[in-house]
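Subject: subtilisin structure
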Amino acid sequence: KSSRSSSSSPPPNSPEAVQDIHRDAGDGSDTLVTLDITCITPTAEEKARKWTRELGTGFTPVNDYIVRMHLPTDGTGLELLLSRLREDEHVHWFEPYRQPEILNEANAQIVQGGTTSSSPTKIWDMGINGQGEVIHIHDSGLDLTHCFFSDDQADFDTFCRTCDYTYAYVEVQSQAATSHATMRNNVCSAAWWTNGYYLSQTFCPDPANTTNCFDYRSSSVRTRKDIFEESLSYAEGGAVERFLSTEQVRAAFCGNYSLTSAYGYSGATAYSCALAESNDLSRWDRAWVKTMASITEDPTQSYGHFTLRTSPRPCTFSGTACTTGDSTQRKVKAYWAFADNTAALDSHGTHVSGTAAGVAADPNSGLNEYKGMAYNASIVFSDAMVGDSGNVLIPMDLGVLFKWGYNLGARIHTNSWGAAINSYGSLARAIDTFMASYDDALVLFASGNDGDRGYGSLGTEANSKNALVVGAGSSPLEYQNRVALNASRQYHRWGLYNQICNTSVLSSRNQDTFRAINDAILFRCGSSSVFGSPTSMTAFFCDGTKIDSEANWNTYACQVQDLSLSITCRDRALRALNFVALGDTDATSVSARVEVRADGNDEETTPPGVLNTIKISIFEMCGRNKNAYLYSENAAGRIGEYHMATFSSRGPTSDGRIKPD
């Protein structure tokens, strides 16, 4: 049986220990507490059925020795189950299960021991470039149209579709329905609208100087109805409504949450889905979204939560796409659509795969300056994420994942994801079991992205004894300024250009970018300065001297950030906006949520989360704040290849071993 050896930890029978397990255990659905239970004999399922009958809970068998037990989030039955586990001589250990998440913030360009992108490539110069190797990558999705992976001869269309995630997982829709019902009950209550709300927001003119900050509205206690009125007064179009009655507001939104059809969405949660995703909201609904952003509540509900099946379906690989792959492809030899076969713009899986082995087909392509470390290696890829849900899905038995790649020739399995619990659990054990059984295989895992928690911040998988666990050193200051910072500025400039200056998409662009800019101009400059059309907006901001000027765009962005008097009021109004834009060239933007400050000094936004989006920021386009931050970090001795990157998780493991490797 497992027990806590540290004198500072609560005894295993104490209420504190139960609270620890309740806090750490979660399968990603926010509706279950999940424990993994390992038996010393192959009787796990038999034991689980007994416990299930007694507790009225559910379970999922992982293999003959391990079961995954599910309990309600209120902890019902947890203490009784723990008692049964401690009493049973067949139970080897039990542990909280936590849904893995994606990790990796490293850059491949200085991995070879250099300090700048122009340093000697010591590893490549010895002929070590991945030639003849196959790398297995499990991640959020791979963009097969990206030039680093595409094939000039034929598109990739042979996906392995057997044994997908539905054999082990089921998507949970009830959470959205429950949250929608809770919001409906709230807005239908007159008392909810009249309850006082203390609205305090901090603004730092110089983000690098957090001692010179002050609060807006810090002395105001206002009702939700009052806040909605203010949001509505700044929404584009129509007269300014004031002194609405509580009943007017309550009735409007109470009815909306009862709709079964709204803005093209249907079903019991149609209105919530429309608030989350529609680009064509009415003025009142846009103000409603802004209101909820102001008081840190979310009127929209997201999907994409998954829970484990109580009875997994049989899983047997069949077909050449699963068992042999496609050797005719240049780079990606096999793609297991375990979750799906899609990748969001700038997907994590594309980033990780490019870092590992990406290279353009044309050897003379300038993009090969950014090729991956093992650029001559092939890739077999398994998709871990449905859409952009954020949930990393893995087979019930992690060994199945590695064996699939191994049988397709992969001897290296790299994984930039993990569960943020520093403990040696069944996932770490599965990794060690696989590597002990396959001497020529090497499994790599990221140490984690929780370095800001200090020592002992490793993830579960990083506790593996046999895996090669990789942390990140900080890039040198010169590199971060010249390459990384410049790339960030260019990225945000491209996003803004695509939304405002790209005339090829003006006819199909939704009006929301136009409306968001006009919202800010109306407040700062008055109604006479608002644009009459998207075309006139484009003509103003893309006149050859601003966003579309190769020589002046960065200077212009910094002038906007500084509220410079050398530019117009319309220009300065751009400071109010952080755009959240759909990434495709023919796509629309979604509404920026503009928080207008009462004294006119500044504005902020809280953008919504939308699939396939990029965030566009004038401040990031200028880059001065980030530059100042880099120099302050360097002065504090936290930058350079001899320092751990701030985000990178640190050891030791839960049992005192030195990791990362």
